[in-house]
Amino acid sequence: MQAPKIADKQDWPFLLGLTLVGLVLFFYRLGAPGLMDPDEGRYAEIAREMFLRRDWLIPHLNLLPYLEKPPLVYWLTALCFKVCGYTEAAARLPSAVSALGGLFLAYGLGRALWGPGPGILGALVLASAAGYVALGRILTLDMTFALCLNLGIGLGYLALSRGQARLWPWAYLALALAVLTKGPVALVLAGLSWGIWVLSSLPPQPSPIQGEGVKERLFLRLRLLYRERMWRNLIQIRGWALLAVITLPWFVYVHRRYPEFFRFYILEQHLGRFLTPAIHPEPLYYYVPVLLGLLLPWTWLLPWALAAGGRWRDPDYRFLVIWAAVIVVFFSLSRGKLVPYILPALLPLALLVGHGLTRLTGVGRLYFNRGLLKTSLLVWAVTGVVLVALMFWPPAPLVKALTRANLSFPFLLTLSLVWALTPLAALIWRHLGALLLGALLLAALAPLGIDQVSPGRSFKDMGLALKSRWRPGAALVGVGLYSQGLSFYSGQTLNLLGGRTELDFGQRLRPEQGLGLPDQGALPAFTAAHPVTFFFLKVHDLPWLAQGLPGKFRPVASHKDCILTAYEGK
Protein backbone atom coordinates (compact mmCIF):
# COMPACT_ATOMS: atom_id res chain seq x y z
CA MET A 1 0.00 0.00 0.00
CA GLN A 2 1.16 3.51 -0.79
CA ALA A 3 1.79 5.72 2.23
CA PRO A 4 -0.15 8.98 2.46
CA LYS A 5 1.79 12.13 1.67
CA ILE A 6 2.97 13.77 4.87
CA ALA A 7 3.69 17.36 3.89
CA ASP A 8 4.87 19.68 1.15
CA LYS A 9 7.89 21.96 1.39
CA GLN A 10 5.82 24.92 2.52
CA ASP A 11 4.59 22.90 5.50
CA TRP A 12 7.98 22.47 7.13
CA PRO A 13 8.04 25.86 8.91
CA PHE A 14 4.69 24.99 10.50
CA LEU A 15 5.88 21.50 11.44
CA LEU A 16 9.10 22.90 12.90
CA GLY A 17 7.12 25.39 14.97
CA LEU A 18 4.79 22.67 16.26
CA THR A 19 7.81 20.52 17.11
CA LEU A 20 9.33 23.32 19.21
CA VAL A 21 6.02 23.97 20.97
CA GLY A 22 5.56 20.26 21.64
CA LEU A 23 9.10 19.81 22.97
CA VAL A 24 8.55 22.58 25.50
CA LEU A 25 5.05 21.57 26.57
CA PHE A 26 5.45 17.78 26.66
CA PHE A 27 9.14 17.04 27.22
CA TYR A 28 10.52 19.83 29.45
CA ARG A 29 11.05 18.39 32.98
CA LEU A 30 9.17 15.27 31.92
CA GLY A 31 11.06 13.16 34.43
CA ALA A 32 11.02 15.61 37.33
CA PRO A 33 7.97 14.49 39.37
CA GLY A 34 7.70 10.96 40.73
CA LEU A 35 5.33 8.49 39.11
CA MET A 36 1.84 8.89 40.55
CA ASP A 37 -0.48 6.17 41.75
CA PRO A 38 -2.48 4.46 40.55
CA ASP A 39 -2.09 4.79 36.77
CA GLU A 40 1.56 5.77 36.33
CA GLY A 41 2.81 3.34 38.93
CA ARG A 42 0.66 0.54 37.50
CA TYR A 43 1.76 0.83 33.88
CA ALA A 44 5.42 1.40 34.74
CA GLU A 45 5.40 -1.65 37.01
CA ILE A 46 3.77 -3.82 34.34
CA ALA A 47 6.50 -2.83 31.89
CA ARG A 48 9.20 -3.53 34.51
CA GLU A 49 7.76 -6.97 35.22
CA MET A 50 7.90 -7.80 31.51
CA PHE A 51 11.68 -7.70 31.85
CA LEU A 52 11.57 -9.46 35.21
CA ARG A 53 9.50 -12.41 33.95
CA ARG A 54 10.64 -12.35 30.31
CA ASP A 55 6.97 -12.70 29.38
CA TRP A 56 6.10 -10.15 26.69
CA LEU A 57 2.62 -11.42 25.81
CA ILE A 58 0.89 -11.74 29.18
CA PRO A 59 1.09 -8.47 31.17
CA HIS A 60 1.74 -9.03 34.87
CA LEU A 61 1.25 -6.77 37.88
CA ASN A 62 2.64 -7.86 41.24
CA LEU A 63 3.69 -11.05 39.39
CA LEU A 64 0.02 -11.85 38.65
CA PRO A 65 -1.63 -11.78 35.21
CA TYR A 66 -3.15 -8.35 34.59
CA LEU A 67 -5.50 -8.58 31.63
CA GLU A 68 -7.71 -5.50 31.87
CA LYS A 69 -6.05 -3.86 28.85
CA PRO A 70 -4.09 -4.98 25.74
CA PRO A 71 -0.31 -4.63 25.79
CA LEU A 72 0.72 -1.94 23.27
CA VAL A 73 1.53 0.81 25.79
CA TYR A 74 3.24 -1.71 28.05
CA TRP A 75 5.46 -2.73 25.14
CA LEU A 76 6.25 0.89 24.31
CA THR A 77 7.06 1.66 27.95
CA ALA A 78 9.28 -1.40 28.21
CA LEU A 79 11.10 -0.33 25.05
CA CYS A 80 11.69 3.11 26.56
CA PHE A 81 13.04 1.47 29.74
CA LYS A 82 15.39 -0.63 27.61
CA VAL A 83 16.76 2.44 25.84
CA CYS A 84 16.64 5.06 28.63
CA GLY A 85 16.66 3.04 31.86
CA TYR A 86 14.05 2.82 34.62
CA THR A 87 13.37 6.55 34.87
CA GLU A 88 10.25 8.66 35.11
CA ALA A 89 11.05 10.32 31.78
CA ALA A 90 11.30 6.95 30.05
CA ALA A 91 7.99 5.83 31.57
CA ARG A 92 6.20 8.95 30.30
CA LEU A 93 7.84 8.99 26.89
CA PRO A 94 5.03 7.10 25.07
CA SER A 95 2.46 9.66 26.23
CA ALA A 96 4.67 12.63 25.37
CA VAL A 97 5.51 11.30 21.89
CA SER A 98 1.82 10.53 21.29
CA ALA A 99 0.85 14.05 22.36
CA LEU A 100 3.39 15.51 19.92
CA GLY A 101 2.07 13.20 17.21
CA GLY A 102 -1.43 14.47 17.93
CA LEU A 103 -0.31 18.02 17.10
CA PHE A 104 1.01 16.87 13.73
CA LEU A 105 -2.22 14.98 13.13
CA ALA A 106 -4.31 18.06 13.95
CA TYR A 107 -2.26 20.14 11.54
CA GLY A 108 -2.45 17.54 8.80
CA LEU A 109 -6.22 17.09 9.11
CA GLY A 110 -6.87 20.83 9.35
CA ARG A 111 -4.72 21.41 6.29
CA ALA A 112 -6.50 18.67 4.36
CA LEU A 113 -9.92 20.07 5.27
CA TRP A 114 -9.45 23.84 5.05
CA GLY A 115 -5.80 24.71 4.41
CA PRO A 116 -2.60 25.45 6.38
CA GLY A 117 -4.11 28.34 8.39
CA PRO A 118 -6.86 26.33 10.11
CA GLY A 119 -4.42 23.45 10.44
CA ILE A 120 -1.77 25.36 12.38
CA LEU A 121 -4.30 27.24 14.50
CA GLY A 122 -6.19 24.04 15.32
CA ALA A 123 -2.93 22.35 16.32
CA LEU A 124 -1.95 25.28 18.56
CA VAL A 125 -5.39 25.26 20.20
CA LEU A 126 -4.95 21.55 20.90
CA ALA A 127 -1.41 22.05 22.18
CA SER A 128 -2.55 24.68 24.69
CA ALA A 129 -5.67 22.85 25.95
CA ALA A 130 -5.16 22.16 29.67
CA GLY A 131 -6.32 18.54 29.60
CA TYR A 132 -4.22 17.71 26.55
CA VAL A 133 -1.04 19.10 28.10
CA ALA A 134 -1.62 17.36 31.43
CA LEU A 135 -2.40 13.95 29.91
CA GLY A 136 0.53 14.32 27.52
CA ARG A 137 2.89 14.48 30.49
CA ILE A 138 1.72 11.47 32.53
CA LEU A 139 1.85 7.76 31.84
CA THR A 140 -1.62 6.48 30.94
CA LEU A 141 -3.04 4.57 27.99
CA ASP A 142 -5.27 7.44 26.94
CA MET A 143 -2.92 9.70 24.95
CA THR A 144 -1.60 6.83 22.84
CA PHE A 145 -5.16 5.59 22.36
CA ALA A 146 -6.34 9.07 21.35
CA LEU A 147 -3.58 9.38 18.75
CA CYS A 148 -4.26 5.98 17.17
CA LEU A 149 -8.05 6.35 17.28
CA ASN A 150 -8.07 9.88 15.88
CA LEU A 151 -5.58 8.96 13.17
CA GLY A 152 -7.81 6.08 12.11
CA ILE A 153 -11.01 8.15 12.18
CA GLY A 154 -9.38 11.09 10.37
CA LEU A 155 -7.84 9.01 7.61
CA GLY A 156 -11.08 7.08 7.19
CA TYR A 157 -13.00 10.32 6.78
CA LEU A 158 -10.57 11.60 4.14
CA ALA A 159 -10.95 8.28 2.32
CA LEU A 160 -14.75 8.61 2.48
CA SER A 161 -15.09 12.29 1.64
CA ARG A 162 -12.21 12.70 -0.84
CA GLY A 163 -12.44 9.32 -2.53
CA GLN A 164 -8.87 8.44 -1.48
CA ALA A 165 -9.19 4.68 -1.16
CA ARG A 166 -5.42 4.35 -0.62
CA LEU A 167 -5.93 5.79 2.87
CA TRP A 168 -8.15 2.95 4.05
CA PRO A 169 -5.33 0.50 4.92
CA TRP A 170 -3.60 3.21 6.94
CA ALA A 171 -6.85 4.03 8.73
CA TYR A 172 -7.36 0.39 9.71
CA LEU A 173 -3.71 0.06 10.72
CA ALA A 174 -4.19 2.98 13.11
CA LEU A 175 -7.41 1.46 14.45
CA ALA A 176 -5.61 -1.85 14.99
CA LEU A 177 -3.06 -0.06 17.17
CA ALA A 178 -5.93 1.61 19.05
CA VAL A 179 -7.47 -1.82 19.67
CA LEU A 180 -4.13 -3.07 21.00
CA THR A 181 -4.10 -0.07 23.34
CA LYS A 182 -7.57 -0.13 24.91
CA GLY A 183 -9.66 -2.69 23.07
CA PRO A 184 -12.48 -2.95 20.50
CA VAL A 185 -14.18 0.25 21.67
CA ALA A 186 -12.02 1.96 19.04
CA LEU A 187 -13.93 0.17 16.28
CA VAL A 188 -17.28 1.19 17.76
CA LEU A 189 -16.29 4.87 17.93
CA ALA A 190 -14.85 4.91 14.41
CA GLY A 191 -17.84 3.06 12.94
CA LEU A 192 -20.33 5.41 14.61
CA SER A 193 -18.45 8.51 13.44
CA TRP A 194 -18.25 7.36 9.83
CA GLY A 195 -21.73 5.84 9.72
CA ILE A 196 -23.55 8.86 11.17
CA TRP A 197 -21.70 11.18 8.79
CA VAL A 198 -22.63 9.04 5.78
CA LEU A 199 -26.28 9.03 6.87
CA SER A 200 -26.20 12.80 7.33
CA SER A 201 -24.73 13.23 3.85
CA LEU A 202 -27.55 11.49 1.99
CA PRO A 203 -29.46 13.64 -0.52
CA PRO A 204 -32.30 15.67 1.04
CA GLN A 205 -35.64 13.90 1.18
CA PRO A 206 -39.14 15.25 0.58
CA SER A 207 -40.97 16.63 3.59
CA PRO A 208 -42.12 13.81 5.86
CA ILE A 209 -45.70 12.66 5.61
CA GLN A 210 -47.86 13.88 8.44
CA GLY A 211 -47.82 11.35 11.24
CA GLU A 212 -44.63 9.67 10.00
CA GLY A 213 -42.53 8.62 12.98
CA VAL A 214 -38.81 8.61 13.65
CA LYS A 215 -38.53 4.88 12.89
CA GLU A 216 -40.16 5.31 9.47
CA ARG A 217 -37.87 8.21 8.56
CA LEU A 218 -34.80 6.28 9.70
CA PHE A 219 -35.91 3.27 7.64
CA LEU A 220 -36.30 5.47 4.56
CA ARG A 221 -32.80 6.89 5.01
CA LEU A 222 -31.32 3.42 5.43
CA ARG A 223 -33.09 2.29 2.27
CA LEU A 224 -31.74 5.35 0.47
CA LEU A 225 -28.29 4.52 1.79
CA TYR A 226 -28.56 1.07 0.23
CA ARG A 227 -29.92 2.43 -3.06
CA GLU A 228 -27.19 5.06 -3.33
CA ARG A 229 -24.59 2.32 -2.67
CA MET A 230 -22.78 4.61 -0.20
CA TRP A 231 -22.64 1.69 2.23
CA ARG A 232 -19.98 0.10 0.04
CA ASN A 233 -17.52 2.78 1.17
CA LEU A 234 -17.90 1.63 4.77
CA ILE A 235 -17.18 -2.04 4.05
CA GLN A 236 -13.44 -2.43 3.58
CA ILE A 237 -12.69 -6.14 3.45
CA ARG A 238 -8.95 -5.60 3.14
CA GLY A 239 -9.00 -3.18 6.04
CA TRP A 240 -10.80 -5.65 8.28
CA ALA A 241 -8.40 -8.39 7.22
CA LEU A 242 -5.42 -6.19 8.10
CA LEU A 243 -6.98 -5.32 11.45
CA ALA A 244 -7.62 -8.99 12.21
CA VAL A 245 -4.07 -10.02 11.32
CA ILE A 246 -2.64 -7.39 13.70
CA THR A 247 -4.98 -7.71 16.67
CA LEU A 248 -6.40 -11.24 16.83
CA PRO A 249 -3.14 -13.14 17.52
CA TRP A 250 -2.72 -11.52 20.95
CA PHE A 251 -6.35 -12.00 21.98
CA VAL A 252 -6.37 -15.62 20.78
CA TYR A 253 -3.09 -16.37 22.55
CA VAL A 254 -4.28 -14.93 25.86
CA HIS A 255 -7.59 -16.79 25.62
CA ARG A 256 -5.77 -20.07 25.01
CA ARG A 257 -3.56 -19.44 28.05
CA TYR A 258 -6.48 -18.36 30.23
CA PRO A 259 -9.94 -19.46 29.00
CA GLU A 260 -11.55 -17.12 31.57
CA PHE A 261 -10.12 -14.15 29.68
CA PHE A 262 -13.06 -13.65 27.31
CA ARG A 263 -15.62 -13.44 30.09
CA PHE A 264 -13.46 -11.11 32.19
CA TYR A 265 -12.29 -8.85 29.36
CA ILE A 266 -15.45 -8.55 27.26
CA LEU A 267 -18.25 -9.11 29.75
CA GLU A 268 -16.77 -7.43 32.83
CA GLN A 269 -14.26 -4.86 31.58
CA HIS A 270 -16.22 -3.66 28.53
CA LEU A 271 -19.91 -4.51 28.68
CA GLY A 272 -19.88 -4.48 32.48
CA ARG A 273 -18.34 -1.02 32.66
CA PHE A 274 -20.71 0.31 30.01
CA LEU A 275 -23.98 -1.21 31.29
CA THR A 276 -23.51 -1.37 35.07
CA PRO A 277 -22.28 1.11 37.70
CA ALA A 278 -19.96 -1.46 39.26
CA ILE A 279 -16.75 0.37 38.25
CA HIS A 280 -16.30 4.18 38.44
CA PRO A 281 -20.02 5.08 38.45
CA GLU A 282 -20.82 8.69 37.53
CA PRO A 283 -23.99 10.57 36.49
CA LEU A 284 -25.06 11.06 32.87
CA TYR A 285 -23.95 14.72 32.78
CA TYR A 286 -20.49 13.92 34.16
CA TYR A 287 -18.61 14.72 30.95
CA VAL A 288 -20.14 18.17 30.42
CA PRO A 289 -17.95 19.91 33.03
CA VAL A 290 -15.10 17.48 32.35
CA LEU A 291 -15.01 18.40 28.65
CA LEU A 292 -15.15 22.11 29.45
CA GLY A 293 -12.27 21.66 31.88
CA LEU A 294 -10.11 19.64 29.49
CA LEU A 295 -10.46 22.25 26.75
CA LEU A 296 -9.58 25.25 28.93
CA PRO A 297 -8.85 28.06 28.21
CA TRP A 298 -10.51 27.63 24.80
CA THR A 299 -13.73 26.49 26.46
CA TRP A 300 -14.91 30.09 26.50
CA LEU A 301 -14.60 30.36 22.71
CA LEU A 302 -16.19 27.01 21.90
CA PRO A 303 -19.82 28.28 21.64
CA TRP A 304 -18.67 31.09 19.34
CA ALA A 305 -16.54 28.68 17.28
CA LEU A 306 -19.44 26.28 16.82
CA ALA A 307 -21.67 29.17 15.72
CA ALA A 308 -19.14 30.96 13.51
CA GLY A 309 -16.89 28.16 12.28
CA GLY A 310 -19.24 26.79 9.65
CA ARG A 311 -22.69 25.53 8.84
CA TRP A 312 -24.19 22.06 8.92
CA ARG A 313 -24.13 22.04 5.09
CA ASP A 314 -20.32 22.03 5.21
CA PRO A 315 -19.50 18.29 5.28
CA ASP A 316 -16.15 18.84 7.00
CA TYR A 317 -17.65 20.99 9.74
CA ARG A 318 -20.45 18.46 10.14
CA PHE A 319 -18.05 15.55 10.47
CA LEU A 320 -15.94 17.24 13.17
CA VAL A 321 -19.07 17.95 15.21
CA ILE A 322 -20.25 14.34 14.74
CA TRP A 323 -16.80 13.01 15.63
CA ALA A 324 -16.62 14.92 18.92
CA ALA A 325 -20.27 14.24 19.76
CA VAL A 326 -19.94 10.48 19.19
CA ILE A 327 -17.08 10.26 21.70
CA VAL A 328 -18.73 12.43 24.35
CA VAL A 329 -22.22 10.91 24.00
CA PHE A 330 -20.95 7.31 23.86
CA PHE A 331 -18.97 7.61 27.08
CA SER A 332 -21.74 9.65 28.71
CA LEU A 333 -24.10 6.72 28.13
CA SER A 334 -21.59 4.41 29.81
CA ARG A 335 -22.35 3.81 33.50
CA GLY A 336 -18.63 3.72 34.31
CA LYS A 337 -16.72 6.93 33.59
CA LEU A 338 -13.22 8.33 34.00
CA VAL A 339 -11.95 11.78 33.00
CA PRO A 340 -9.48 10.72 30.26
CA TYR A 341 -12.03 8.66 28.32
CA ILE A 342 -13.14 11.66 26.23
CA LEU A 343 -9.62 12.87 25.45
CA PRO A 344 -10.03 11.96 21.71
CA ALA A 345 -12.82 14.57 21.44
CA LEU A 346 -10.36 17.42 22.00
CA LEU A 347 -8.79 17.13 18.54
CA PRO A 348 -11.96 17.71 16.46
CA LEU A 349 -13.06 20.47 18.84
CA ALA A 350 -9.65 22.15 18.57
CA LEU A 351 -9.93 22.06 14.77
CA LEU A 352 -13.35 23.73 14.98
CA VAL A 353 -11.94 26.49 17.20
CA GLY A 354 -8.92 26.88 14.90
CA HIS A 355 -11.20 27.15 11.88
CA GLY A 356 -13.25 29.81 13.63
CA LEU A 357 -10.14 31.82 14.49
CA THR A 358 -8.99 31.67 10.88
CA ARG A 359 -12.30 33.01 9.60
CA LEU A 360 -12.16 36.14 11.76
CA THR A 361 -8.55 37.17 11.14
CA GLY A 362 -6.93 39.35 8.53
CA VAL A 363 -3.18 39.80 8.93
CA GLY A 364 -3.25 38.37 12.42
CA ARG A 365 -5.72 40.98 13.67
CA LEU A 366 -9.08 40.13 15.17
CA TYR A 367 -12.22 41.59 13.65
CA PHE A 368 -14.84 41.86 16.37
CA ASN A 369 -17.79 41.73 14.04
CA ARG A 370 -19.69 39.25 16.21
CA GLY A 371 -21.14 40.05 19.58
CA LEU A 372 -20.76 36.44 20.67
CA LEU A 373 -16.97 36.67 20.30
CA LYS A 374 -16.79 39.80 22.45
CA THR A 375 -19.03 38.18 25.04
CA SER A 376 -16.90 35.03 25.08
CA LEU A 377 -13.70 36.98 25.65
CA LEU A 378 -15.33 39.10 28.35
CA VAL A 379 -16.56 35.99 30.17
CA TRP A 380 -13.05 34.57 29.93
CA ALA A 381 -11.62 37.79 31.38
CA VAL A 382 -14.19 37.97 34.18
CA THR A 383 -13.42 34.40 35.27
CA GLY A 384 -9.75 35.35 35.40
CA VAL A 385 -10.43 38.41 37.55
CA VAL A 386 -12.55 36.26 39.87
CA LEU A 387 -9.69 33.77 40.17
CA VAL A 388 -7.26 36.56 41.08
CA ALA A 389 -9.69 37.82 43.72
CA LEU A 390 -10.09 34.33 45.15
CA MET A 391 -6.32 34.06 45.55
CA PHE A 392 -6.32 37.01 47.93
CA TRP A 393 -9.66 36.33 49.64
CA PRO A 394 -10.16 32.57 49.44
CA PRO A 395 -13.19 30.98 51.12
CA ALA A 396 -12.54 28.20 53.63
CA PRO A 397 -13.51 25.29 51.30
CA LEU A 398 -11.10 26.59 48.65
CA VAL A 399 -8.28 26.87 51.18
CA LYS A 400 -8.88 23.28 52.22
CA ALA A 401 -8.95 22.03 48.62
CA LEU A 402 -5.76 23.90 47.67
CA THR A 403 -4.00 22.59 50.75
CA ARG A 404 -4.84 19.02 49.75
CA ALA A 405 -3.66 19.68 46.19
CA ASN A 406 -0.40 21.21 47.51
CA LEU A 407 -0.52 24.07 44.97
CA SER A 408 1.51 27.11 46.04
CA PHE A 409 0.17 30.67 46.18
CA PRO A 410 2.76 32.11 43.72
CA PHE A 411 1.90 29.45 41.14
CA LEU A 412 -1.85 29.97 41.47
CA LEU A 413 -1.52 33.76 41.38
CA THR A 414 0.62 33.61 38.22
CA LEU A 415 -1.87 31.25 36.61
CA SER A 416 -4.79 33.52 37.49
CA LEU A 417 -3.07 36.68 36.22
CA VAL A 418 -2.17 35.13 32.87
CA TRP A 419 -5.72 33.76 32.67
CA ALA A 420 -7.21 37.21 33.18
CA LEU A 421 -4.76 39.20 31.05
CA THR A 422 -4.93 36.99 27.95
CA PRO A 423 -8.49 37.89 26.82
CA LEU A 424 -8.05 41.49 28.02
CA ALA A 425 -4.96 41.85 25.83
CA ALA A 426 -6.86 40.40 22.87
CA LEU A 427 -9.74 42.84 23.44
CA ILE A 428 -7.36 45.81 23.66
CA TRP A 429 -4.91 45.02 20.85
CA ARG A 430 -7.26 42.92 18.72
CA HIS A 431 -4.50 40.58 17.68
CA LEU A 432 -4.68 36.82 17.44
CA GLY A 433 -1.16 36.55 18.80
CA ALA A 434 -2.35 37.77 22.21
CA LEU A 435 -4.75 34.86 22.53
CA LEU A 436 -2.26 32.26 21.33
CA LEU A 437 0.60 33.60 23.45
CA GLY A 438 -1.53 33.71 26.57
CA ALA A 439 -2.91 30.21 26.00
CA LEU A 440 0.58 28.80 25.42
CA LEU A 441 1.86 30.54 28.58
CA LEU A 442 -0.97 28.91 30.54
CA ALA A 443 -0.04 25.54 29.02
CA ALA A 444 3.62 26.09 29.90
CA LEU A 445 2.63 26.45 33.56
CA ALA A 446 1.18 22.93 33.57
CA PRO A 447 4.52 21.19 34.36
CA LEU A 448 4.92 23.38 37.46
CA GLY A 449 1.45 22.40 38.62
CA ILE A 450 2.15 18.70 38.08
CA ASP A 451 5.43 19.06 40.00
CA GLN A 452 3.50 20.39 42.99
CA VAL A 453 0.63 17.90 42.84
CA SER A 454 2.69 14.76 42.24
CA PRO A 455 4.38 14.42 45.68
CA GLY A 456 0.97 13.87 47.26
CA ARG A 457 0.21 11.00 44.87
CA SER A 458 3.65 9.42 44.47
CA PHE A 459 5.19 6.71 46.65
CA LYS A 460 8.65 7.36 45.21
CA ASP A 461 10.32 8.33 48.51
CA MET A 462 8.78 5.39 50.34
CA GLY A 463 9.78 2.99 47.57
CA LEU A 464 13.38 4.22 47.53
CA ALA A 465 13.54 3.99 51.34
CA LEU A 466 12.35 0.39 51.17
CA LYS A 467 14.86 -0.42 48.44
CA SER A 468 17.75 0.95 50.51
CA ARG A 469 16.74 -1.16 53.57
CA TRP A 470 15.89 -4.38 51.77
CA ARG A 471 17.81 -7.49 52.68
CA PRO A 472 17.83 -11.04 51.26
CA GLY A 473 14.87 -13.08 52.43
CA ALA A 474 12.77 -10.07 53.44
CA ALA A 475 9.07 -9.77 52.61
CA LEU A 476 6.66 -6.90 51.95
CA VAL A 477 3.04 -7.06 53.13
CA GLY A 478 0.27 -4.67 52.19
CA VAL A 479 -2.33 -4.53 54.97
CA GLY A 480 -5.52 -3.59 53.13
CA LEU A 481 -3.39 -1.51 50.77
CA TYR A 482 -1.67 -1.95 47.45
CA SER A 483 0.60 0.63 45.80
CA GLN A 484 1.84 0.11 42.26
CA GLY A 485 4.42 2.88 42.65
CA LEU A 486 5.83 1.32 45.82
CA SER A 487 6.46 -1.88 43.86
CA PHE A 488 8.07 -0.02 40.96
CA TYR A 489 10.48 2.07 43.02
CA SER A 490 11.40 -0.69 45.49
CA GLY A 491 11.50 -3.47 42.90
CA GLN A 492 9.48 -5.72 45.23
CA THR A 493 6.07 -7.38 45.11
CA LEU A 494 3.47 -7.15 47.86
CA ASN A 495 1.87 -9.97 49.80
CA LEU A 496 -1.72 -8.79 50.25
CA LEU A 497 -3.65 -9.06 53.50
CA GLY A 498 -7.32 -8.10 53.26
CA GLY A 499 -9.15 -5.75 50.91
CA ARG A 500 -10.17 -6.04 47.28
CA THR A 501 -7.71 -4.86 44.64
CA GLU A 502 -7.34 -4.83 40.87
CA LEU A 503 -5.28 -8.01 41.32
CA ASP A 504 -8.25 -10.18 42.28
CA PHE A 505 -8.69 -11.68 38.82
CA GLY A 506 -4.97 -12.40 38.52
CA GLN A 507 -5.02 -14.13 41.92
CA ARG A 508 -7.86 -16.36 40.73
CA LEU A 509 -5.84 -17.27 37.64
CA ARG A 510 -2.62 -17.94 39.58
CA PRO A 511 -3.53 -18.97 43.14
CA GLU A 512 -0.28 -20.92 43.35
CA GLN A 513 1.65 -17.63 43.28
CA GLY A 514 0.98 -17.40 47.01
CA LEU A 515 0.90 -13.60 47.29
CA GLY A 516 -2.25 -13.47 49.41
CA LEU A 517 -2.54 -13.90 53.18
CA PRO A 518 -5.95 -15.22 54.32
CA ASP A 519 -6.21 -13.33 57.63
CA GLN A 520 -4.32 -11.87 60.57
CA GLY A 521 -3.82 -15.33 62.03
CA ALA A 522 -1.43 -16.22 59.21
CA LEU A 523 0.99 -13.42 60.08
CA PRO A 524 3.01 -15.07 62.93
CA ALA A 525 4.03 -18.02 60.78
CA PHE A 526 4.65 -15.76 57.78
CA THR A 527 6.89 -13.32 59.67
CA ALA A 528 8.78 -16.17 61.35
CA ALA A 529 9.80 -17.41 57.91
CA HIS A 530 11.49 -14.10 57.00
CA PRO A 531 14.35 -12.24 58.71
CA VAL A 532 12.45 -8.97 58.35
CA THR A 533 8.92 -8.17 57.19
CA PHE A 534 7.98 -4.73 55.94
CA PHE A 535 4.36 -3.72 56.44
CA PHE A 536 2.63 -1.12 54.28
CA LEU A 537 -0.54 0.10 55.97
CA LYS A 538 -2.64 3.00 57.21
CA VAL A 539 -1.45 4.65 60.44
CA HIS A 540 -4.66 3.78 62.28
CA ASP A 541 -4.22 0.06 61.46
CA LEU A 542 -0.86 -0.26 63.24
CA PRO A 543 -2.31 -1.00 66.74
CA TRP A 544 -4.54 -3.70 65.22
CA LEU A 545 -1.54 -5.25 63.47
CA ALA A 546 0.64 -5.14 66.58
CA GLN A 547 -1.93 -7.08 68.66
CA GLY A 548 -1.07 -10.38 67.01
CA LEU A 549 2.66 -9.81 66.50
CA PRO A 550 4.87 -9.50 69.59
CA GLY A 551 8.01 -7.53 68.96
CA LYS A 552 9.04 -4.11 67.76
CA PHE A 553 7.98 -2.19 64.69
CA ARG A 554 10.56 0.27 63.35
CA PRO A 555 9.25 3.12 61.19
CA VAL A 556 10.85 3.28 57.75
CA ALA A 557 8.89 5.92 55.84
CA SER A 558 5.52 7.64 55.74
CA HIS A 559 3.31 9.17 53.08
CA LYS A 560 0.23 11.13 54.13
CA ASP A 561 -1.77 8.63 56.25
CA CYS A 562 0.22 5.59 55.04
CA ILE A 563 3.30 4.21 56.75
CA LEU A 564 5.99 1.66 56.01
CA THR A 565 7.29 -0.16 59.06
CA ALA A 566 9.81 -2.96 59.56
CA TYR A 567 9.09 -5.93 61.85
CA GLU A 568 11.81 -8.37 62.98
CA GLY A 569 9.95 -10.35 65.65
CA LYS A 570 11.15 -10.80 69.22
Key descriptive features of the protein:
26 helices, 61% helix, 3 domains, 570 residues, mainly alpha
Describe, in plain words, how this protein is organized in 3D.
Helix content is 61%, strand content 6%. It has 570 residues and is mainly alpha-helical. The protein folds into three domains: 9-30 and 67-359, no CATH class; 371-456, no CATH class; 459-567. The strands form two sheets. Strands 5-4-3-6-8-7 form a six-stranded mixed sheet, with helices on one face. It has a two-stranded antiparallel ribbon with strand order 1-2. Helix 1 (12-27) runs parallel beside helix 5. The radius of gyration is 26 Å and the shape is globular.
Shape: globular
Beta-strand segment tally: 8
- Sheet having the most strands: 6 strands, mixed
Q: Cα-atom Rg, whole angstroms?
A: 26 Å
Number of helices: 26
The structural class is mainly alpha
Helix content: 55-70%
What's the rounded overall pLDDT mean? 88
- Give the strand order of the largest sheet, numbering strands 1, 2, ... along the chain: 5-4-3-6-8-7
Quaternary state, please? single chain
| C-alpha end-to-end distance | 71 Å
Tally of individual domains: 3
- Bin the strand percentage: 5-15%
Low-confidence stretches: none
Compile the SSE list and pairings:
Blueprint: H1 12-27, H2 39-53, E1 60-61, E2 64-65, H3 72-84, H4 88-114, H5 116-127, H6 130-135, H7 142-162, H8 168-182, H9 185-200, H10 214-227, H11 237-257, H12 261-275, H13 287-294, H14 302-308, H15 315-333, H16 346-359, H17 371-392, H18 396-405, H19 409-429, H20 432-444, H21 446-453, H22 460-469, E3 475-479, H23 484-490, E4 495-497, H24 504-509, E5 516-517, H25 523-528, E6 533-538, H26 542-547, E7 553-559, E8 562-567
Parallel strand pairs: 3-4, 3-6, 4-5
Antiparallel strand pairs: 1-2, 6-8, 7-8
